[in-house]
Structure of Urea ABC transporter permease subunit UrtC:
Amino acid sequence: AIVAVALELVWGYAGMLSLGHGIFFALGGYAMGMYLMRQAAGDGLPAFMSFLSWSELPWFWWGTQHFAWAMLLVVLVPGLLALVFGWFAFRSKIKGVYFSIMTQALTYAGMLLFFRNETGFGGNNGFTGFTTLLGFSVTAISTRAALFMATVLLLLLTLWIGYLLAQSKFGRVLT
């Protein structure tokens, strides 16, 4: 539903069909997944890295053992990619179906990157074996209920921000 709000703003208000939302959500998901993998591995390497005979974590895993840093990465990494891609796309005046094709190509390039074992993202299997989140068992009913409530609150916040954006001067320019 959060993706639907984003698509409504970009496609519904601005009239630009973006097929690239998948890469932005994947980047945020992988940032949180890196934190969860570090929690599951303890002081060692995640299981898939040990299987591939890696001796140390890649540089971009730095700091992912901290929840606050991982949450910051969830927002900053997709935001940075959107800023760079948007700057080039709009500076080049890409619009219409070409914008859609470029955003789909961006998503496909991200998929190819994530599916390679040597990039440090778990390859085709992705990240597996999560057991805890902030010290709570992910299989516990109470943890799942808390995650559900957090997701509902995030959706409500997203709807509210989307509404405020649509009612602002900037939002009126989009239509």
Observations:
- Strands lie at 132-133, 136-137.
